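Retro notes - structure team

What went well: the batch runner handled both jobs without manual restarts.
What didn't: labels got mixed up in the shared folder, which is why I'm recording both outputs here explicitly, each with its sequence directly above its tokens.

Job 1
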Amino acid sequence: MSIINYASREIQFKIVYYGPALCGKTTNLSYIHQRINPQNRGDLVSLATAADRTLFFDFLPLNAVVIKGFVTKFQLYTVPGQVIYNATRQLVLRSVDGVVFVADSQWEKMEENVESFKNLEENLAKQNISIDEIPLVLQYNKRDLTNIAPINYMEYVLNNRKKRFQSFEVISSTGQNVFAALNAVSQILLHKFSKQSDVPSTVAPPVAIPVEPPPQKQASA
């Protein structure tokens, strides 16, 4: 649930990157953090345990004036992918405004993708949130690998609900469509917020603009 501070004219939104272990959630946030102008971002904070070095969530506020008269702050979090840390997933999901579900495109990861998506739906339900109502987009990550499932199959197993989610083919290691997915979920939640509140709505620009384009490969002479 977004937090509105009328005194400071500030709105704070929380976006959670959800998905199975090693699907690329951390890579997403690392890329976003690297590409944002340092003046518009906070520190990237990592939390880990001795038992699992991949157990952490990242905190990243992105500042942009996207609603007339109000400064919006976006906080980005990841959840641990390991099943045994479901309590931590539930904690991170508290007061969530939008979700980016990161699926691993490799064939052998399909079962984990489906289980993680079901787990997301269950954990949202515990907060009385329907997965069909929360702003959510799908990332089909690691599209640069060779042993990947075709997009139509991934749509069949993950995006087969009556309400279809917007989806993106992503290579988080290079940044391909990372910002596209973030901007899409941000636009959805801002539109939902403006409809449910008395804050004047306006068309929101992309919430995260890279400092410079990714380096291009030089053509051979």
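Job 2
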Amino acid sequence: MLLRTLTLLPLLATVLLVSPPHVAQAEPPEGFVSLFNGKDLTGWKGLVGNPKSRAEMSPEELATAQEKADDEMRAHWSVVDGELVFDGKGQSLCTAKDYGDFEMYVDWKILEGGDSGIYLRGTPQVQIWDTEYKDYERHGAHKGSGSLWNNKDNPRFPLVKADNPVGEWNTFYIKMVGDKVTIKLNDQLVVDNTVLENFWERDKPLYSTGQIELQNHGNTLWFRNLYIRELD
């Protein structure tokens, strides 16, 4: 038995050396930077209103509202084992920086009945939800996540359903140029260069820049491996 154990030790050492790193903190793809450091909420802020209402605030009003929103953010968003975790209360999480044209990756995970989304330039939204949840079927959830949910005049639902089962991780690749969005979910194309409409001001073009938001609908959520590359 001792001889067999000693024989296996080099093999075990080799396995440990070649095992992949913890996926919650993988390295960014070439040319991308991390939006989330895996340790704390640096680079993120709480949600204040929407692009239209924020533009109507004075600098003093916005600063006061942002301070309150940041306190609420820290009460409900946390970092656990290198992952962003939302406890199901409070408001969405927003990047402190605004973005124009970009490519990004984000991993996400939900529980049964989960409902979330990714706001692009502060505009809703790339839809995330439990595609098997009966109460959501009337809204088209069975067609899959990744839809541009608030579109009216342009395609709204994904090309294919590419979700992993609830409780498992999923990965979005999102590319935004001008008002056009392309999305892959788990390496499958679900949105193909489609216009994202301005939900807040339907009579106006989409905002040229804005924050990225992790939306909540009162569910426990997980996000990790958020990477972005700004495009000229």
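One thing worth noting from job 2: The radius of gyration is 20 Å.
We'll revisit the folder naming next retro.
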